[in-house]
Predict the 3D structure of the following.
Amino acid sequence: MFSVFSKQEDTSNYESLERDLQEKDAIIDQKNAIIQYYEKKINELEEGAQHIFLGKLLHTRPDGVCIYRSSVRQLFPNIRHWEFNRPLDKDHVLKLKDIIQAKQCLEGHIDILDDGNELCIVNGQHRFEAIFDLMKNATFDREIITNVHKVSSLTSDEANEIFLATNNIKNVQMSDNPDVKFQHICMGLQEEFPNGITKNKSGKANMWRLDIKQLYNLMQYNDYFNNSNNSEKSLFKNIIDLNNTLSVKPYDYFFGKKRAEKFKKQYKGACESKFFMGLHTETQLAILFQNHFK
């Protein structure tokens, strides 16, 4: 009798355990179904998400690039040029203005770098300039598609690769290619002279200052700086030495006999910021670089 009851009890325990496992599996299946449902809803929300400047998120590509639809009125005042892009062709900008004015829709798209803090145009800067000038008329607006590339830093190798990938390589001269060495020098000089080197949307600076874009262009088109035998460290030191040389030049070296208040203010600002290269015009600096760096 004892053995029969023991077998019945074991069978009953097994069946109970099996029911418990089935119930737990059913609960897990329900949880997984709920998770999948909310993941789908989150993806749907993200696909239709609105960015304050970029507009509506249309699609996220497998490589992580986000495609947005926005209006130039909403977006363009809140983005700027990537400092290390090619110099602008003003004639091309004027031609684009005529084309854009004649169309109700904007052809093509622009590519933007997003480091989490700033949005910078890496491809489409001529369209940006043409449209921004047209936007001086407050009624002007156009729909625009943007490809947004998220990067860890605007001076990273990744950002440089995106520049080369998004621009038509046939139109990019070797001297136009972003050079990480020059970028590091620019960023280092900005840290050294925070009140002397600026980072403006226009790529221009005023008074005694020099914009980081202007500084980059000076190096980019100078043979000495493009000589691979010259290291980043030595080039950085050479620019510091040039600024030190200019720091002991008298007022008349920069402005001659001019005594207008604006020139006095520029000279005082340079002395206070310890940055003197910006007292020269871009043309003067290009000549100075050519003669000084040999």
Summary: Residues 179-294 form one domain. The two ends are 109 Å apart (CA to CA). The first strand starts at residue 50 and ends at 51. The mean pLDDT is 85.
